[in-house]
TrEMBL record:
The modification N6-(pyridoxal phosphate)lysine is found at K276. Homodimer. This is Glutamate-1-semialdehyde 2,1-aminomutase. It comes from Microlunatus phosphovorus (strain ATCC 700054 / DSM 10555 / JCM 9379 / NBRC 101784 / NCIMB 13414 / VKM Ac-1990 / NM-1). GO terms for biological process: protoporphyrinogen IX biosynthetic process. Keywords: Cytoplasm, Isomerase, Porphyrin biosynthesis, Pyridoxal phosphate.
Length: 440
């Protein structure tokens, strides 16, 4: 067992060179490339419980958990058994299975939806749910919030235009201005902006989509004003204007509580998206809502949506096993170690004199290296953080065997498998990492 000093990362560096020749940037999803923190990413050979093992043989405490899915930790024996048993019966049929029904039932039992459709990624879920919302309402416009990520759906890869309630501009080359002209990007937690947008475009807005709690600009929970949470506010204003309220629980669903962010604020959306935990580490995601809305989908309704591998039997088995094993004890454990880690991180940063704000949505939290504020309500504030301080903190933690998200804008993910050994490794690495951040 390694503690402290790691072995070299020579093999990872070599692998990264080889990867860059055949895969753009050497990675299949940009954040993995360490661009925000510098250096070469670790190539992973295997994972077990709370640990990743890179190809140089380093054992790293994993605080990414595959960006959320691995709520039970890596290679959980019962999940592996379910996966193995499913795979032995064939890996894809292109025909319905009972397991898909069971997974749909497991989701419906937890989240406030009456029907779901299974898809393969969070991106597919949000893309499909927007089509459904537009098809149902006969309207074109979508409201989203700056810093909320809903996958790489064209119309959602948009940046705010100048001023509130203006039409968005493409957030990346390859997305047309015509596509984002139907997207309005507002500031998260900004009710005035939302009111203004509805005042101006109320009869053209098909839906408001939001992360149930923002987790892709660091963690920013929905704010409460006069006793009314931001999600409840959004649900109300959508209802007033005949728009649909879409809660994206891809990240929070079945993670921040058994019932996701819904378990925290109890707001009933019209439509929802899910992913990550419900796939147990396989490509599975879903969208759902009231039956009358979901019935508008093909083959009952006219709004088309489909997928060769949707409801894949192996992914479905992994998801079902994961949800079944995600007992109240699992959530209680993750909640407790999350609270412990938040306190330890805060203490270490304070001791080193590093300005910071720690925010959480249930057990999902992140650390903002911001100065001069006590809370981070939106992307503009999140963007004031010192990414240099984060990079120094990140690399010190990595050198001490702790694998944090390689970006200051990400949540820290824990699992049921993070035991005392893993937690002690993290906690003992914090003081040196905090000092590194202070010097950055
Ligand atoms: N919505 C949210 C809230 C997410 O966090 C993500 C992924 N991080 C997505 C959608 C997209 O999911 P995927 O990466 O599976 O396409």
């Amino acid at each position: 067992q390694l503690t402290g000093q790691l072995l070299s990362d020579r093999l990872s560096r070599e692998a990264f060179e080889r990867a860059r020749a055949v895969i753009p940037g050497g990675v299949n999803s940009p954040v993995r490339a360490f661009l925000a923190v510098g250096g070469a990413p670790r190539f992973i050979a295997r994972a077990s419980g709370p640990y990743l093992y890179d190809i140089d043989g380093n054992e790293l405490v994993d605080l990414i958990c595959s960006w959320g899915p691995m709520l039970l930790g890596h290679a959980h024996p019962e999940v592996l058994a379910a996966v193995g048993a499913a795979a032995e019966h064939g890996t894809s049929y292109g025909a319905p299975t009972l397991a898909e029904v069971e997974l749909a039932e497991a989701i419906i039992e937890r989240a406030p939806v009456e029907q779901v459709r299974l898809v393969n990624s969070g991106t597919e879920a949000t893309m499909s749910v927007l089509r459904l919302a537009r098809g149902i309402t006969g309207r074109d416009m979508i409201v989203k919030f700056a810093g909320c990520y809903h996958g790489h759906v064209d119309s959602l890869l948009a940046s705010a235009g100048s001023g509130v309630a203006t039409l968005a501009i493409p957030g990346t080359p390859g997305v047309t201005a015509a596509t984002t002209a139907d997207t309005i990007v507002l500031s998260y937690n900004d009710r005035t902006g939302v009111r203004e947008a509805f005042a101006r475009y109320g009869d053209r807005i098909a839906a408001v989509i939001t992360e149930a709690a923002a987790g892709n600009m660091g963690v920013i929970p929905p704010g409460v004003e006069d006793g009314i949470g931001f999600n409840a506010f959004l649900a109300d204003i959508c209802r007033e204007h005949g728009a649909l309220f879409i809660s994206d629980e891809v990240m929070t669903g079945f993670r921040v509580t058994r019932t996701g962010q819904y378990g925290i604020d109890g707001v009933q959306p019209d439509l929802m998206t899910f992913g990550k935990v419900m796939g147990g580490g396989f490509p599975a995601a879903a969208f759902g809502g009231r039956a009358e809305l979901m019935q508008q989908l093909a083959p009952v309704g006219g709004i088309y949506q489909a997928g060769t591998l949707s409801g894949n039997p192996v992914a479905t088995a992994a998801g079902l096993a994961t949800l079944r094993l995600a007992t109240p004890e699992v959530y209680a454990h993750v909640d407790a170690i999350s609270a412990q880690l938040q306190a330890e991180v805060g203490a270490a940063l304070s001791a080193a004199g590093v300005p910071h704000v720690i925010q959480a949505a249930g057990n999902l939290f992140s650390v903002f290296f911001v100065a001069g504020v006590t809370a981070v309500p939106d992307y503009a504030t999140a963007a004031t953080q010192s990414t240099q301080a984060y990079a120094a903190f990140f690399h010190s933690m990595l050198e001490q065997g702790v694998y944090l998200p390689p970006s200051a804008y990400e949540g820290w993910f824990l699992s049921a498998a993070h035991d005392d050994g893993a937690m002690n490794r993290i906690v003992s690495a914090l003081p040196a990492a905090a000092r590194a951040a202070a010097q950055a």
